[in-house]
Every structure is written in structure tokens, then in C-alpha cells.
Design a protein that fits this description.
about 230 residues, alpha/beta, Rossmann fold, eleven-stranded mixed sheet, two-stranded antiparallel ribbon, about 20% helix, disordered C terminus
Length: about 230
């Protein structure tokens, strides 16, 4: 990923919770294909995580198949800091085709695709083509999969993402604060799998050794390379 697309990752006593994997660093965003499996059928935390990994200095291509729109809704532009082009695809096959075409445009900051369930079109060949296109043209891609189980895939990174209660708002303890997620990188190429807890605050992803409902387990943070 080019320096202009880098994102700050701040660790607060961060370590991987997976037994035997302690000490592995949280991976920087990569210019390849990642898959994000929702914590449950309609948990949209994976969308927030995908956006946290996406640059703000270039537009995104955001594609949804019809069932994803019906089940989880459309993005709300006014509530997002990213500029994006939204595509409504009639089915998973059309969504995958649009993603691959979008990845050929190097002016895009990232391509995000949402697909519902496990359609036949979502196979190893399709995901391999997306991974190759992302790497060839330098545009990261994220497939967000709702109501789906991991099958054979060409994705280089595969995540389970589940939403957690938000942090306490710094100015109003009755209001929701920053969103938080449980992240499980269960398959990866070029980095170590692991489990983390994370909060997204403005332009940075904060990684914690533990999150308790509404508060951070540690207030000690240090900045890693962007």
C-alpha cells in the first residue's frame, strides 16, 4: 500500500489472544483481497472494519447485491467520512463482476463488496480473480459476507468480525462512543493469524489487549508506523 493510503494503528498493550500466538502484531492494511464474515446474519460491524482499513484520500467503490440491500440496508452517505460510488447489483454474480471491473481502476482507494449467503457464484475461481486483480492494479478489495460460512477461497486474509458494545462517549456517558469489534484473522498469507479487540476513533484503529463493555482495559497507548 502506498504511503498516501497508510492508516495509523495504535496499540494499547496489544497482544494476540489466541493461545500460543502471543505477541503477533496487528497486520497493516494490504493491497489484496480480504474476506470479512459477519458475526451474525445482520451484524454490520464488518462494514465498519472494512471502512477503517480504507483510505479517505480516494473514492471507494461500494457494491451490494440485492439481498444484502434487503437484509442490511444501503449506506448512508451523510454519516460517512469516505467518498464512495454505490452500485446495486442484481445478484452475487453481478456484484463479483462489478468488483473485478472496479479493481482495474487504480484511481479508486478501495473496492468493497457485500454478498448475502453462499451463492454458487462465490467460488474459488471468482475470489482468486479478485485477489489477482487487486494485487495487479494496487487497489485493495474487501468482500463482506453475511449469513455465510467459510469455504474454499482465493482471499489472502479471512476475518471473523463481531460487533461489541461501543465505548463510553467522552462528553456524554448516555451516548454511544466509538464502535468496537472483536477481530479474528483466522487465515492469512504474509502475516500471522490472531485475535484482537479494536476500537475505531476518527482516522485510527486502536488495538487493545482486552475490551470491557463501555471502557478500555488499558489506557496506555503508543503509536506504530503509519
Amino acid at each position: 500500500m502506498s504511503p498516501s493510503h497508510a492508516m495509523s494503528i495504535v496499540h494499547a498493550e496489544a497482544s494476540v489472544a489466541r493461545p500460543g500466538a502471543s505477541g503477533y502484531a496487528f497486520p497493516q492494511p494490504a493491497t489484496t483481497l480480504s474476506e470479512v464474515f459477519a458475526g451474525n446474519g445482520r451484524d454490520v460491524g464488518g462494514i465498519g472494519f472494512a471502512l477503517s482499513q480504507s483510505p479517505r484520500d480516494a473514492p471507494l467503490l461500494w457494491i451490494q447485491d440485492r439481498m444484502s440491500i434487503l437484509e442490511t440496508g444501503r449506506p448512508f452517505p451523510s454519516g460517512l467520512s469516505h467518498q464512495f460510488i454505490h452500485v446495486e447489483a442484481r445478484d452475487a454474480k453481478a456484484a463479483l463482476w462489478a468488483m473485478e471491473e472496479g479493481l482495474r481502476c487504480s484511481e479508486l482507494g478501495a473496492v468493497i463488496g457485500e454478498i448475502w449467503s453462499s451463492p454458487a457464484a462465490l467460488d474459488f475461481t471468482a475470489t482468486r480473480r479478485l485477489a489477482v486483480a487487486a494485487e495487479a492494479h494496487g487497489v485493495p478489495a474487501t468482500l463482506i459476507l453475511f449469513g455465510s460460512q467459510p469455504n474454499l477461497s482465493g482471499a489472502r486474509r479471512r476475518w471473523h468480525v463481531a460487533s461489541r458494545p461501543s465505548l463510553t462517549h467522552p462528553h456524554d456517558d448516555r451516548a454511544p462512543g466509538s464502535p468496537t469489534w472483536s477481530l479474528d484473522l483466522f487465515r492469512a498469507r504474509g502475516c500471522q493469524p490472531g485475535r484482537w479487540e479494536a476500537a475505531y476513533e476518527e482516522d485510527r484503529l486502536r488495538i487493545f489487549s482486552e475490551l470491557r463493555d463501555g471502557e478500555l482495559a488499558s489506557e496506555h497507548a503508543f503509536k506504530l508506523s503509519a
